[in-house]
């Protein structure tokens, strides 16, 4: 039996792509799933799919940049499912542009979704992980941030994304120290390129900005540094998140785990 059987997992940005697969993977391990997304219809559809597959799940409307919405969303999860044991802070978007053309509003939007979202969801979830387990100890838990190879490497056109993804390493490391004595672990999972709507949208945009064909964007920009020219998959990322969520002790905490076909080796 999985160690997360019966645990409650909140996954943000889980209406689509990587987050959606994480929701299904953690459900297959027996966790109760809160599918949180700004797109409530999409979140509810994923929750319905999990229930149809035999799991337990709820959809939660949550704009991760909105303090009140995050607090209310986490409160609704606790009211319905009783706890928050696993938080996967995954919601994200991409806006590409060279720095000299990068709109300040876009910069602030990127940092708000990736960094404010990570902070606000963590802050809202922690009291439930720190709460007494009935035997004088904290319940504990795990927080997993969706970083990227861009938590370690830079790419042209991605100033805000690279800045935000680097920032998540800092937050995860602070949480590993603050949460260590209270049973809370934290990690950053760092995927290479994964074919989701977020990446599909970038291929024509990068082709235009860099003046190269879409095939060249995929072959050279996205996969050129991998060992085998292959995209990382949503399943690869979800299995990594599951492994970290199931790991039994703080022997593994404060780490960044790169899943990228060797694009970045730490
Ligand atoms: P996606 O576009 O498929 O899904 C992103 C989800 O986030 C969507 O359901 C969207 O509605 C939701 N979302 C957007 N803004 C939100 C907000 N303010 N509040 C709540 N939800 C919001 O993208 P994806 O590729 O699955 O990306 C998920 C995460 O993985 C992101 O953090 C992204 O940076 C990261 N990542 C993706 C790749 C990749 O190649 N696809 C690589 C590395 C890291």
UniProtKB/TrEMBL annotation:
<dbReference type="Pfam" id="PF00106">
    <property type="entry name" value="adh_short"/>
</dbReference>
<comment type="similarity">
    <text>Belongs to the short-chain dehydrogenases/reductases (SDR) family.</text>
</comment>
<dbReference type="InterPro" id="IPR050259">
    <property type="entry name" value="SDR"/>
</dbReference>
<keyword id="KW-0560">Oxidoreductase</keyword>
<protein>
    <submittedName>
        <fullName>3-hydroxybutyrate dehydrogenase</fullName>
        <ecNumber>1.1.1.30</ecNumber>
    </submittedName>
</protein>
<dbReference type="GO" id="GO:0003858">
    <property type="term" value="F:3-hydroxybutyrate dehydrogenase activity"/>
</dbReference>
<dbReference type="InterPro" id="IPR002347">
    <property type="entry name" value="SDR_fam"/>
</dbReference>
<dbReference type="InterPro" id="IPR036291">
    <property type="entry name" value="NAD(P)-bd_dom_sf"/>
</dbReference>
<dbReference type="InterPro" id="IPR011294">
    <property type="entry name" value="3-OHbutyrate_DH"/>
</dbReference>
<dbReference type="InterPro" id="IPR020904">
    <property type="entry name" value="Sc_DH/Rdtase_CS"/>
</dbReference>
<dbReference type="GO" id="GO:0032787">
    <property type="term" value="P:monocarboxylic acid metabolic process"/>
</dbReference>
């Amino acid at each position: 039996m999985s160690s997360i059987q019966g645990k409650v997992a909140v996954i943000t940005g889980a209406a689509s792509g990587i987050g959606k697969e994480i929701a299904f993977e953690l459900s297959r391990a027996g966790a109760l799933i809160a599918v949180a997304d700004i797109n409530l219809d999409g979140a509810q559809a994923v929750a319905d799919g999990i229930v149809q597959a035999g799991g337990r799940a709820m959809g939660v409307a949550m704009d991760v940049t909105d303090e009140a919405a995050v607090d209310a969303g986490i409160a609704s999860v606790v009211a319905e499912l009783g706890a928050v044991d696993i938080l996967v802070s995954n919601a994200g978007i991409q806006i590409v542009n060279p720095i000299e053309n990068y709109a300040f509003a876009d910069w602030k939007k990127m940092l708000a979704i990736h960094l404010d979202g990570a902070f606000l969801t963590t802050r809202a979830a922690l009291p439930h992980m720190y709460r007494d387990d009935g035997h004088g100890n904290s319940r504990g838990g795990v927080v997993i941030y969706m970083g990227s190879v861009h938590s370690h490497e830079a790419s042209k056109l991605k100033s805000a994304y690279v800045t935000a993804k680097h920032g998540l390493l800092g937050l995860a490391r602070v949480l590993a120290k603050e949460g260590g004595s209270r049973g809370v672990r934290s990690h950053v999972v760092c995927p290479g390129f994964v074919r989701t709507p977020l990446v599909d949208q970038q291929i024509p945009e990068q082709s235009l900005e860099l003046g190269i064909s879409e095939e060249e964007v995929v072959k050279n920009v996205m996969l050129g540094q991998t060992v085998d020219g292959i995209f990382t998959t949503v399943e690869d990322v979800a299995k990594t998140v599951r492994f970290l969520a199931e790991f039994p002790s703080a022997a593994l905490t404060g780490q960044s785990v790169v899943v990228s076909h060797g694009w970045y080796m730490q």
